Amino acid sequence: MIETLKVLEEIQRIDLEIKAIEEQEKEFVANLDQLGTELKEENAAIEALGAEAGGLAAQIKEAEERIRESGERVSKDEKRLNSVKNDRELNAITKEINGANKSRKQGEQEKNQLAARVSEKEGALNAKKESAAQKQADFDRLSAELVEKRNAWKEAAQSKLKSKDDIKSKIRPDILRKYEMIRSKRGGLGLAQVKNEICQGCFTHIPPQVYIMLKRGTEELQSCPHCHRLLYAETPRELEAV
Question: Engineered SS bond to 70: which of 59, 103, 182, 184, CB 3.0-4.6 Å?
């Protein structure tokens, strides 16, 4: 049974290495997907800022048109002053000139405010474009890197699976099936060490009689009554020297 534990330990080591490769790939893909999501958000923000800047630019044109119209009214009314016949006409023209000047001044203030907002939007837009460009470059680089890494991960996993196939014939098929079943349900760990009567797989105490049997090196495999992992009291390599 000591030899069986040694083989199971080696199999579990290989399984954990394969799992680590799979987790590495999942993490890489998750990071790439996150970067892709951020890139989409950046591009959406760029589009929104561009639309806002465009809307403000249109408002500036409208303000400029009002300024122009007000200026024309002032010029026209000032010319009319030369033909004023009485105070009533003078007061009316003066009122129109004052109103047009006020409208022009308001238009100029509005234009300046809009121009400041456009400048702010353009600054934010340029910053977003730079950020998006960097993210796009990173995304393209990581996408190309993923292709290469996937080939390497696949080759490494296949190599380890071959190693597992080479040694799993050294234990009974029913024990291997039991180990695989437990491993599939217990986070990839089908084998657990016991220290101070505590299973290192689920960290709960095992019955004293089970621990005694493990220490004696019984020919029967023992399982944790809580997590059902196969147990050993020492590392299989230490058992080899018993």
Answer: 103
Q: What's the Rg (C-alpha) of the chain?
A: 40
Sort strands 222-223 and 230-232 into parallel, antiparallel or unpaired. Answer: antiparallel
Q: 17-168 — its CATH code?
A: 1.10.287.1490
Cβ density class 50-74: b for 16+ within 10 Å, e for less? eebbeebeebbeebeebbeebeebb
User: Distance (Å, rounded) from C-alpha 12 to C-alpha 223?
Assistant: 16
pTM above 0.90, yes or no: no
Q: Could you give the angle at which helices 2-80 and 173-185 cross, rounded to 10 degrees?
A: 30
pLDDT surpassing 70 at residue 8 = yes
Helix, strand and coil in the chain, % to nearest 5: 80, 5, 15
Comparing CA positions, the residue from 188, 182, 194 lying closest to residue 239 is 194
One-character DSSP codes across 135-164: HHHHHHHHHHHHHHHHHHHHHHHHHHHHHH
Confidence of residue 211 (pLDDT cuts 50, 70, 90): confident
Q: DSSP code of 228?
A: -
Which pair of structure tokens corresponds to residue 121? 């939007």
* Residue 200 pLDDT: 93
Residue type, 109: Q
> What residues form DSSP beta bridges with 192?
231
Torsion of Cα atoms, 194 then 196 then 202 then 205, to 10°: 120
Is the Cα dihedral 26, 157, 202, 178 positive or negative? positive
Domain ranges, ordered by start, for the chain: 17-168, 173-239
Can you read off the two tokens belonging to residue 89?
A: 């006409």
